[in-house]
Amino acid sequence: MKIVLVHRHGPGQFVHLACHLADAGWQVSFLCEAMNVRLPGIRTLRQPVTAPPPAIPFAQYHQDVGLKAARTLESLVREEGAPDIVYGHIGWGSMMFARDVLPKTPLIGYCEHYYHATGRDVGFDPDDEITLAKRAQLRVRNAAQLTTLDQLDAAISPTKWQKSAFPAAYHHKIGVCHDGIDTHRCQPNPNASLTLPDGRVLTARDQVITYVARDLEPYRGFPTFIRAAAKLAQQNPDAQFVIAGGDGVSYGQARKDGRTWRDVMMAETQIDPSRIHFLGQIPHDQLIRMYQISSLHVYLTYPFVLSWSVLEAMACGAPVIASDTGPCHDMIRDRQNGFLTDFWDSDALAMKMAFCLTHRDDLTPLRERARKTILNHFDLRRCLDRQTTLIENLASGRKSR
């Protein structure tokens, strides 16, 4: 069987699935502008890079991305025939013209995020001004997804909340299945340790508050976290704060003054720099050790896509304090397998952080329920089995026609 996975920057959410299918004997190809990691036995079909907005309008950008992806698929078909199935992210336009190249090939879409002008990430900040231009931009960004959804045989969204953003008319096409968390690799380890840049070694016996984001920015609640950390640091001289993430902007917009949010928040809060440890973007094995030694893990997010980090922290048995926002409701039950807190309220977050440190020994049942939640609903093996079943059924249906 031959599958083409489509993602602007591979492998993205398909990393586990690609390896799983390749191990099962599938011929796996990635159609992408750039491949961020090398995966053994998996080939890359590179399409030309399209300059992202604002260099060109979104409608033109999505069309250009889609046409380049379609031409790459067309070349593949000429050289070796059509693949048995194509599974691709629909967010950048890459799948817009796949049906025009492959009229009989089953197509699956990955539905990550559908934009809304209210009720989700846009407008969540009370200071946001939602102009007509902004609303129009969001509608145009969604147009590429709607054009693609019309052509798909099936689609997958990683969580119920993320699926709910898409128009109800397409819900019959969209199943819910997460990419999967490797619960064998992400598991509790009472003997874990983490070496900090200054050489100090932290273990589960220390009071360690962890925070992880791709980049330290408002979309993932970094300002609220630092304000709460500064308040807790004044009350608790033993608490150590360990932070992983870069100083760029993954979501939202960069500051107009050019400063990083780390610099801004350190200056605002005046937190003792010896108490807070910035690790930058670190290898996955170090992230896991962070979760394993964590006395509590803080995860804050706008109503936006759910991060793998919070699920991995739960799988490692870390008590999680998460924002009381839509993405977190799919896995956190307040005071059952974690804690929910107001995204903007740094005082409330500081109080809950203090509670977790004071009652560390009482949180064992909560830690166990957190890991059980991941095992039951987000375990990699279960997720791969569900995805593979869908892919095999669609591909077999094509073979039988």
Automatic annotation (TrEMBL):
Stored InterPro entries: Glyco_trans_1, Glyco_trans_4
Organism name: Thalassospira indica
Pfam short name (any one): Glyco_trans_4_3
Name used for this protein in its record: Glycosyltransferase
SUPFAM superfamilies: UDP-Glycosyltransferase/glycogen phosphorylase
Stretches assigned to the Glycosyl transferase family domain: 25-185, 206-372
Keyword Cell membrane: no
Superkingdom to which the source organism belongs: Bacteria
Coiled coil: none
Keyword check for Transferase: yes
Lineage, top ranks: Bacteria, Pseudomonadati, Pseudomonadota, Alphaproteobacteria, Rhodospirillales
Keywords recorded for this protein, A-Z: Transferase
